[in-house]
Design a protein that fits this description.
Blueprint: E1 4-6, E2 17-25, E3 28-33, E4 37-44, E5 46-51, E6 54-59, E7 63-66, E8 72-76, E9 80-88
Parallel strand pairs: 1-3
Antiparallel strand pairs: 2-9, 3-8, 4-7, 4-9, 5-6, 5-8
């Protein structure tokens, strides 16, 4: 049975966004989706982001934008990954 879930975003203050610096030991963050655009910026280490069944290897200096509603997950490729993660509500 596949494991995936809808992630509820808790906004930071009065902004329609959540800003979250992350230092993650080698691990998998399971498949999920949400109504926010997600921006990943890798400061150190490396990780694999799987978005809509396509895999992308990211390392220091890389930036990835994941569209709202896209099923995605990530896997640390190094002993740890140091990255910034922002989920922002983008309206037309």
């Amino acid at each position: 049975m596949e494991s995936r879930y809808y992630e509820t975003i808790q906004e930071t203050g009065h902004l329609q966004a959540r800003f979250e610096p992350v230092i993650s030991p080698a691990r998998v963050f399971p498949a999920h989706w949400h109504e926010y655009v997600e921006i990943l910026y890798i400061r150190e280490g490396s990780l694999s982001a799987i978005v809509q069944a396509s895999e992308y290897d990211l390392s220091a200096g890389d930036l990835m934008i994941i569209n709202s509603g896209d099923l995605h997950m990530r896997l640390s490729l190094s002993d740890f990954a140091d990255f910034s993660q922002t989920a922002a509500c983008v309206s037309a």
